Amino acid sequence: MKKVFSFLQPYKLPITVAYSLTFIELTVELLLPFFLGKMINSGVEQQDLNSIIMWGSIMIGLAFIAFVSGILNSFYASHTSNGFAYDIREELFKKIQSFSFANLNEYPTSSLVTRFTNDIRQIQNTVYMGLRIMVRAPLMVVGGVIMAFVINAKLALIFLVTVPLLIIFLIWVLKKSSKMFESVQGRVDTVNRVMQENLAGMRLVKAFLRRDYEEGRFMKANQGLATMTRKTFRFVETSMPILLFVMNLSLIFILWFGNIQSVAGETDVGDVVAIVNYALRITMSISMFSFIILAFSRMKASSERLREVLDVDSRLAQQADVDINQHITKGKITFQDVTFTYPSMPHPALERLSFTVQPQEQLAIMGATGAGKTTLFQLLPRLYDVDSGTIRIDDQPITYYSLDELRGSIGYVPQNPLLFSGTIQDNILMGKEDATDAEVEQAAKDAQIHELILRLPKQYDTLISQRGVNLSGGQKQRVSIARALIRRPKILMLDDSTSALDLTTESRLLDAIQSDHCTTFINTQKVSTARRADRIALMDYGKILATGTHDELLKHSDLYHKIVTSQFGEEFSDVD
Fold it and tell me: How many alpha carbons fall within 13 Å on the CB side of residue 375?
């Protein structure tokens, strides 16, 4: 929790003011029963109206001060808790942005969303309560016991027995409930994951008639959350009757012994009334403990979950010897004995991979699913770091370049194009925020999407729905390609990004890319695409089996011969 609550440092002044106002409220509440006893002893019993008016006026004045203090305290508590939550969200978002893919694999999207929303809200609410009632309740118990001893030590002795026992009981409840709430938050992650997967794949669910299955899956996750939540809340709420039973028992003894002392003339009626008032206030404060424990337990579980993310060591931190003046100018790529294994996977995805791509050369990469093509694409912009070996750009290890320089020089179009909510122009500008309208149009022309955009009602200002669902697969691919081309990268990586394009559109697109004079990687399954490249690399099981032109591979590679045959039939001589 120390890591999370360090974000309260900038709010020392409002916290101090809030606690000062809480102390004023508490002082007034502790003085009111004392003055009530005085009014009864010197005013009611003595039938002295002036004394009643004097003590009553003092009590009204103090109550007004407590009222104003409470309002101001709520303002400062709200300001602090909201600012605190804002700062944590900012830091958490920045931290996740620095994650490598390996880090992201450790935390599912649903879990991160829960931490951003539910967990931060739990802590925010607890901070607010902490400045309003969490401190006040235990201080009221301690202060009430002290004031009871000031008034009548004999009657107050009952508190020395009951209060310590209740404190020990509450500590035990707190420890046990904290672990239970960790399980609750984990179940919230599960529910969010099922919901996220279902909403993202709704079309697939309907197409495969999986509605009943998905409903059952959600019901199972939801039932698990409901059961665990119910069990946890029942445990915490069970503490309330126990607390009230002990305190009400104490109240009965106070009334009994107070009556005996009053009849015997050993104490005044006003003193008994005052101590009863303190007992009632202590009972009310202790009755709030179950609520406080509930909030504190959830806060403790949530803060641990946030700390886990904030303490993650990003595996792509800048190297100590990085040269910020080092720039990529040519785009020459060299893989030298590169080996990489995904976390928790038994076998390497790439194993001792070595090859060189010259500046402005186009390399097509072909291979079966799982051959390592996409993995190769993810290593170049350092979405993952290699286990061993070296990747060089312009004869310098990629770790010598800053991440901004490295990724800013690469145009990457992923296998599954992802568009964001906003306009078509907004999505293209993600590649270069300061691009002009002319640059946006040129990128769209190169990506063979400009003419289609002009036919839309609002053209470049056409809104794209979430995840681009109002565009076809080929349209989304071309917008994604335009986003990569607008930055005029030195290195362009197309990860099977033309699969939804017809041959004519793809041909024009590849011609436009070639005129940009950038080093290009094309991950493809289509021979018609690969044969246009300067060289073709055949991959399988994380290794390059053969490289060469289309004609060279036809003559010397049985695997390539089989690929061509599978796509064009035995009469494949027409494609050479």
Answer: 26
